[in-house]
Amino acid sequence: MKFKQLVAAAAFGLASISIAVAANAADKKVVVGYQTDALPSSVAIANGDFAKETGYTIDFRKFNSGAEIFAAIASGDVQIGYVGSSPFAAAASRGLEVKAFYLSSISGIDEALVVRNGSGINTLADLKGKKLAAAPVSTDHYQLLALIKSLGLTEKDVQVFAVPQPEIVASYNRGDIDGGFVWDPALSELKKNGKVLVTSKDVADKGAPTFSAWVATSKFAADNPQFLKAYASVINKYYASFAADKAAWGPESDNAKALAKLLGGTADQQAAALKNLTLLTPDVQASADWLGGGEKSGAAKILKDTATFLKGQGKVSDILPSYGAFVTADALVSASN
């Protein structure tokens, strides 16, 4: 099923799921952590659609990184979060019981290494001796380290600072660092005085693919399956709109303005960032290639490969035999049918 075909299907699915959820969700509450990535579904945070369609009271909290969200999940403060595959792999390897139920995007050009004008970096060969930064344990951090390794370099050859994105932007603008591997709105800010050297897709093609996903604690997923189905249906609706009606997501659109108000940056920047996303249709996500194949699923394999790399870097101490228990297509299958 293509996103355009989902426009009508999503509306029908939302109506039926919402009725079922509302009947059983009185006084239900959940805390959801999100980040500043430009996603069509973030409009549903801004306008209250997630709460309306699920029937739950949702406390949305903004975080600077997936690592911060997983820390909040581990403490019990957050039940659902939007995270990248690198902090996900680290958290799973440490025994945190969570499940990815929706893949928001996969490696594309929405995350990239931007190098500062005047840094002396024109090609990958120029990275030796430079100072680069990425958010701690983020997919960008993972891909930056993987990129450096692929060049035959180590962190002794390239200084890598693991700091939150706001600090990356400030350090970059002061000239303290030569580049940063970031996502929007930081990506747009860094490009004002620099250029993209490599994208997340480029690094994925070198053997280090990533994804971003909505995850829920295993307990919450088991206790609230209808909520996850309704939540996934809301995401489907907005992704379908984005695919079918480009004008509704342009720089002058209410959607782009809502994203700018929620996430930062300008409507122009948000509209441009949306174009950089690499999205998967619900049926592709639910297939064995991504979330539906258990241990052999693409998402589980990326988690294990990422954990293996992180162990080699000394970022995690253990690698699990399988990461199949950390992915599920249950919410997606129900939401898209």
From TrEMBL:
Keyword Signal applies: yes
Location of this chain's protein in the cell: Periplasm
UniProt cross-references to SUPFAM superfamilies, sorted A to Z: Periplasmic binding protein-like II (SSF53850)
Domain Solute-binding protein family 3/N-terminal, first and last residues per copy: 29-253
Domain of life: Bacteria
Alphabetical list of InterPro entries matching this protein: Peri-bd_TauA (IPR010068), Solute-binding_3/MltF_N (IPR001638), SsuA/THI5 (IPR015168)
Record flagged with keyword Signal: yes
Signal peptide extent: 1-25
Residue runs in coiled coils: none
Main subcellular location: periplasm
A Gene Ontology biological process term: alkanesulfonate transmembrane transport
Gene Ontology CC: periplasmic space
SMART domains the UniProt entry points to: PBPb
Keywords attached to this entry: Signal
Pfam families xref list: NMT1
Similarity section: Belongs to the bacterial solute-binding protein SsuA/TauA family.
Identification of the protein by name: Taurine transport system substrate-binding protein
Organism expressing this protein natively: Rhizobium lusitanum
